[in-house]
Amino acid sequence: MSLKLVSLTGADDHVSPESLAAISVQYPLVEWAILVFPEKEGTPRNPSAQWREKFLSLGLPHTAAHLCGAQIYRDLLSPETSQSRIDELSRYGRIQININARSRHFTDEEVLAIYRKLLDAGLHLILQHHDGSWRIIQRFVAETSQDSLSRIDILYDASKGTGQRPEFWPPMSTVGSTPLFCGYAGGLGPDVLPEELPRIREAATAWRDLPFWIDMESGVRTNNEFDLAKAKTVLSIACGKPQSLERKGVYFASKVVHAVRWQAMRDAGVITASSWIDEAGEGQTADYGELSERCLNEIAEAERLVLYCQPGEILKGALLEAGAALMAGTPVFLVGECESLSRVFRKHALWHECSSIEEAIIAPIRNRLEVSVRHRLSSCEDALRTLAIYLGVGGYNAPTVDGQVFAEKIRWGIDHILAVEKKRKPVVSSSVFVVTGTRYGYKEDTSWTLTSWPTKEAAEAHVAFLEAKLQEAADQVAEGCTTGLDYPDREKIEELMVEHDRLLELGTNGAGWSVEEVPFRSDVSSFPLVAGALAG
Questions:
Q1: Is the four-CA dihedral 326, 328, 330, 335 of positive or negative sign?
Q2: What's the mean pLDDT when you consider all of the chain?
Q3: Beta strand spans in 254-343 (E)
Q4: CB 322 within 8 A of CB 346
Q5: So where are the chain's domains?
Q6: Span 250-362: which CATH code?
Q7: Alpha helix (H) residue ranges in 121-217
Q8: Span 193-220, mean pLDDT?
Q9: Inter-CA distances, 46 with 98, 155, 223, 226, Å
Q10: What whole-number distance in Å separates Cα of residue 501 and Cα of residue 508?
């Protein structure tokens, strides 16, 4: 099924609705998402009511309204204004609810009331999914009838509309066995889409071959204005048509005195992306503002950046260019020692160091998967080294860590703890603490007893363990789907998820756990003991 819609957000009064209609004819999968933000109406990204009316009168096939700010939601909650707002929104194909994303203006009950009101009015909803909204979304979809689920879509937007790419793209969401139509947003644009779209497709179709959509706003703007050329480029990439933004050429970053050297290399056949080398002399640049924008664009489109520094030189602008390259995902190759360079950034996954310019031009770029893996493991390195020192298998002063001995000592430690626990006599108390699980259903919840513990602290620790295992399971499956590391086939992923459900007693609609103190009973054999739970 694959990519179904490309939602482009932020067209405003500076763009004619007719130009959007023309693009819709050329690219039928485009959805024009219009921001409805009463407090900022008429400003960039937020079209006026007159513009929106003209846009809607064209009857384009795919449209969406993205509700922003607090006023629109106050209007929906108010009996005096809610119906007029609903009548206006009903003219759009879908309604995206961006509520409490960056500031919490409304309670959970108010958010649920808005969800319910719009769904009951027959509107097709998009729920913005991030760390501040997933719990309330889970409650809402759990209470929604099967027939209405087809009018609830989920937009994964971990950056909450700030345009930051996530470390990995999550797999599709389901309610029971019912899949939801899911979209992906965050830092997308014509420069990164060729790389990110395959990763998104891999995540979206990992469990089942389901349709998905992508959304972007800042990525199709230039100088905060909606850029029709970028919009067309994005749609061309999404449709699989040839496009001209393939990374190409070497961008040279150095003191301007070395411009002649780069010109000579260009004349010798080296494909060069840096145009500044032709205006490095005093007075040759007419507009430094334009030059800075041009340099940033060239860096983003370059295949690599070569950062060159001779002994005694203090780099300034070249270091800014190197930083811009890392932000744009352009690999940096350093030649020479630079005293003003931070050691922190020399650890970046896209950073390379070479002994000569010739080597920097032809040296292979690290595999993108390797870059991703290095980034994810870097935060674990210190913890692993500390543990290695403690176990006596290497560490900060050792060139390597003996992995086999490392694993054996960890296993020995676990076995030793279990042996000690088994020798301890259980303490009989007047009561036990029962951990109860609850699976959230469509019409009613189901509760059952999982296990019991002699102390409240132990029971609460068990609940924390279950919650951590749930998150770990989700993270492992998501990572396996998106990074390609030990990538299992779809059947294997489904087996893993079924196994996690069995072990953790979790339902795909969500689950929760509670702790209750109950009087101790004589038939203690009905309660699993702590040691037995650990051994199992």
A1: negative
A2: 80
A3: 304-308, 332-335
A4: no
A5: 3-238, 250-362, 381-423, 431-535
A6: 3.40.50.450
A7: 134-143, 193-204
A8: 87
A9: 14, 20, 15, 11
A10: 8
pLDDT-wise least confident of 216-230, 253-267, 400-414, 454-468: 400-414
Check: CB of residue 93 under 8 Å from CB of residue 64.
yes
Higher pLDDT, 430 or 484: 430
Predicted confidence (pLDDT) per residue in 271-298, tens digit: 899 999 998 888 888 888 888 988 998 9
Rounded mean pLDDT, 469-488 = 57
Residue with tokens 């009857």: 59
Packing angle of the helix pair 456-483, 193-204 (nearest 10 deg): 120
CA 347 to chain centre: 23
Tell me what the mean pLDDT of segment 47-58 comes to: 95
Amino acid 140: pLDDT: 93
| Residue indicated by tokens 């674990």 | 380
Average pLDDT over residues 134-150: 90
Across-strand partners of 384?
A: none
Do the bridges between strand 511-519 and strand 446-453 make them parallel or antiparallel, or are there none, so unpaired?
unpaired
Q: Would the CATH topology of 3-238 be identical to that of 250-362?
A: no
User: What are the structure tokens assigned to 484, written together?
Assistant: 């390609």
The residue that leads in pLDDT, 444 or 229, is 229
Q: Quick one: which of 180, 190, 122 has its CA closest to 156?
A: 180
Q: How far, in Å, CA of 202 to CA of 184, rounded?
A: 12
Spatial strand order in the sheet of 446-453 = 446-453, 431-439, 511-519
**Gap between the Cα atoms of 218 and 191, Å rounded:** 12
Give the model's pLDDT for residue 387.
66
Q: Which residues, at least 6 apart from 411, have a Cβ–Cβ distance to it below 8 Å?
A: none
Helix and strand counts by DSSP (H, E) for the chain: 17, 19
Strands (E) across 83-149 are located at: 94-97, 125-129
The pLDDT of residue 244 is above 60? no
Q: 115, 148 in Cβ contact below 8 A?
A: no
Q: Which two tokens stand for residue 129?
A: 């999914």
Q: What is the pLDDT of residue 260?
A: 93
Query: Rounded distance, CA 167 to CA 80, Å?
Result: 44
Residues facing 70 on adjacent strands: none
Scored b (16 or more CB within 10 A) or e, 430-450 reads: eebbbbbbbbbebeeeeeeeb
**Cα–Cα distance, 522 to 432 (Å, whole number):** 12
User: What is the CATH topology of the domain spanning 3-238?
Assistant: TIM Barrel (3.20.20)
What CA–CA distance (Å, rounded) separates 450 from 186?
Answer: 39
pTM of the model: 0.49
